[in-house]
Amino acid sequence: MHADDLILVSVDDHLVEPPGLFEGRIIAKYASLAPKVERQSDGSDVWIFNGKVIPNIGLNAVAGRPKEEYGVEPTAFDEMRPGCYDIHERIKDMNAGGVLASMCFPSFPGFSGRLFAACEDKNLALAVLQAYNDWHIDEWCGSYPGRFIPMALPVLWDPQLAATELRRVAAKGCHSITFTENPATLGYPSFHDASWDPLWKAACDENVVISIHLGSSGQLAVTAPDAPVDVMITLQPMNICQAAADLLWSRVPKNFPDIRFALSEGGTGWIPYFLDRIDRTYDMHRAWTGQDFGDKLPSDVFRQHFLTCFISDPVGIALRELIGIDNIAWECDYPHSDSSWPEAPEELARVAADVPDAQLNKISFENACRWYHFDPFAHRSRQSSTVAALRAEAAGHDVTIRPFDKGRFSHHHAGVAIGDLAGKATA
CATH number of the domain at 3-421, out of 3.30.420.40, 3.40.630.30, 3.90.480.10, 3.20.20.140? Predict the structure, then answer.
């Protein structure tokens, strides 16, 4: 399929929260305690909440920048493309990049909202979290119906409250909720604990997908404090592999047959081996481990419950039928450093050059729409939803890749070690 003819729904993008997010959304009792943006002496903009300072990490907002400027230093709003944080500019960038619709993970609260969960005053934490969810659903997504898959943050500290909040946002049309890839690392019960059952039941009742982004546990796979940062970046999908194994062998798929998980930004090339491994593990060890999937293999259970996604994964594309055509979705990852915006359609067309159109349509938009109960065509025709049609709407919108501040970002970070990033990650 030619890039111009693709229809693209991204199941993993990101937003940088605008400074005024909480204005008018928090009750007076907590208004002075709500998160706020402050300019630092180094010129960076940071969020302040609950005694913590959360910078906007450069790598999280590099759309429009040359690769030579990528880095981990804190950045400011005026150093980003407005599409990172301004919904109207985001739509222009989506059109120029040929992306019909997008699901946007949060930034400063952490991918699973762990910043709010760490607040000692749980009433304040809940008020802030609900204000965030309402802003995301009503304003960010609601400003352009049919262009965004709404996503909500979970109440990590209380499974019953988490279930209540899930049902609340589902009533607003939200069918995706973020969650941590490993609650145990955050001090909460593991996936194997029955404490989470109210949340799993609510997700099944309301047709809500549990979307798990790599790094959402606050821990990435590392080998040594002095290892180059390239090691950590290379191993990032291992977090998702671990989460998949943890959930697959847990009691959750057995007890909640309608539960669905999305493995966000984990790639797909590793999955055929993973499926082979879990089936062999089941065959060789179930007699003494006690695992029982009835008449199904673990790989069947995986395909029933898990959606996988990729940015550019030629290996995964080549092995797509071993993964399951109905279990693969495309992602753009705007405005993060792995994204190929605004040339993502051309990249996908290249890596999927040999994929039949019917299969590519599933991967590029149909699976996402089905899993997340999302219908963009209720708002615009399919003909007006292609890459070519969207780009025509964005005629004249500047997507030139250009440097911003060579003096600040010209070094290449070749010597950055994993230990140097301690405290800087916002995942």
Answer: 3.20.20.140
Domain boundaries, the chain: 3-421
Q: What is the pLDDT of residues 233-259, one digit of tens each?
A: 888 888 899 999 999 999 999 999 999
Q: Tell me what the pLDDT averaged over the chain comes to.
A: 91
For strand 176-179 and strand 101-105, is the pairing parallel, antiparallel, or unpaired? unpaired
- Of 370, 335, 365, 364, the residue nearest 347 (C-alpha): 364
pLDDT in tens, 118-174: 999 999 999 999 999 999 999 999 999 999 999 999 999 999 999 999 999 999 999
- Chain center to CA of 380: 25
